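Audit log entry. Action: structure prediction of a protein-small molecule complex. Ligand: 2-acetamido-2-deoxy-beta-D-glucopyranose. The ligand was supplied as SMILES and no pocket hint was given, so placement is left entirely to the predictor. Protonation state taken as written. Sequence taken verbatim from the request; no trimming, no tag removal. Recorded inputs:
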Amino acid sequence: MDALVFFILALFSLSSTLFIIEASKIQSGFSVDLIHRDSPMSPFYNPSMSKLDLIRNAAFRSKTRLTRFSHSLSLLSNENFQSTESIIKPNNGDYLMRIYIGTPPVEKLAIFDTGSDLTWVQCSPCINCFAQDTPLYDRTKSSSHTNLTCDTQSCTLLPKKQQFCGKSQECLYSYHYGDKSFSVGELVVDSISFGSNSGVDVNNVDMTFPKSIFGCGYYNIFTADNSGKTSGLVGLGAGPLSLVSQLGHSIGRKFSYCLVPFGSNSTSKLTFGNQSTITGNEVVSTPLIIKSLEPTFYFVNLEGITIGQKTIQTGQIDGNIIIDSGTTLTYLEQPFFDDFVTSVKEAIGLEEAVDIPSPFHYCFEDPNSMFPSIVLHFTGANVPLQPKNVLLLEENNLVCLAIVPSNIAGISILGNLAQIDFQVEYDLDGKKLSFAPSDCTKN
Ligand SMILES: *[C@@H]1O[C@H](CO)[C@@H](O)[C@H](O)[C@H]1NC(C)=O
Ligand SMILES: *[C@@H]1O[C@H](CO)[C@@H](O)[C@H](O)[C@H]1NC(C)=O
Ligand SMILES: *[C@@H]1O[C@H](CO)[C@@H](O)[C@H](O)[C@H]1NC(C)=O
């Protein structure tokens, strides 16, 4: 076995035994609400914005996120691996979740992010924080906090380039997010709790993980959000510091979500532990491919796509698409995207619209026309998409394809529209990603 792969595997098994977090009600798992930032349940909700504006904004966020992924992944190629630049992580996303920190627990609304590992919140005493409506995390007011020094094993879980040591040997982190956003602070240990219902008050916290490691960020710049509504980020990537890795065996290292359609009044659900296992005869699974140099991202292998009667192949085998919850549209690498869109045009047989609004690349004008069936072929798993997963209705009866070309070589992303009304299960121990069609408003 490759020495580096071995090292990463060793780190993984170490991390899962390090943090066997005890929780009394964990047996069956638990679930929390995921709040779409543009839904009526979100503090960002703005009823005066049209659906079109919302989609355009979402598409814009997708694009900046794609750029950040690419910075991060450029470290995968050897030629850039010597770069001294910090690994850059995406910082924005479409979904929010509530977490409760410390004892007594204090509510935080944070960005849910499967594209990064470190969970962090703004923390006092703050040197530079972005606007926040609620008080900063103050560990001196939490009876359950402990500090970490540089010589602790937990501190070594930070990637080397993102870890440094303070004057009193405190474990410091520095996360840069590609644009001018970053968070710098101290790694600390305290309880993180979840409530099972939306709008729970702090007396109604359901599930507590007493010794969670997260960042107490006291130098934070967040260019994407100056609304004052969020106070940090929950990292659910595949790396050793992510919340899913920390909760470890107590949740069987797995989670699933079910995303409701855009504009729905129900909330999407994120489920941890045994409850997150999806069942039924429509479940299909594909191997999860975690790349050792960048273990954060959930790669799977997309072998091809069937459009109507025609199947096109990517010809790839070792993980060519990232499954992401924070990117709205789906991005396909060139030239595969060109084959795909050519096949869609052939199957629809309609004139392409003249004025194609950015960020789309293909629109047509008849919303009642027959749209061909589209099936994604992941290794071992065929996933039939519905029109709501691939089409967006624009103004003036214009229908646009929610799948666009990735302008960055080597990066394709399955975005969240394509995952709507599917249960999607991430099983890190089982190394598989599973899909099952579902009515997510009924969960
Ligand atoms: C989850 O389910 C599996 C299989 O049913 C069982 O072996 C395991 O003990 C359960 N885990 C927890 C934490 O209850
Ligand atoms: C942790 O560090 C902070 C800042 O230096 C300090 O205020 C706090 O008392 C320390 N907590 C413990 C438990 O030592
Ligand atoms: C959501 O709720 C609002 C107000 O209760 C209602 O007008 C709207 O039709 C609902 N939307 C859906 C998709 O159910």
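Audit: result stored. Residues 3-273 form a domain with the Cathepsin D, subunit A; domain 1 fold (CATH 2.40.70.10). The two ends are 43 Å apart (CA to CA).
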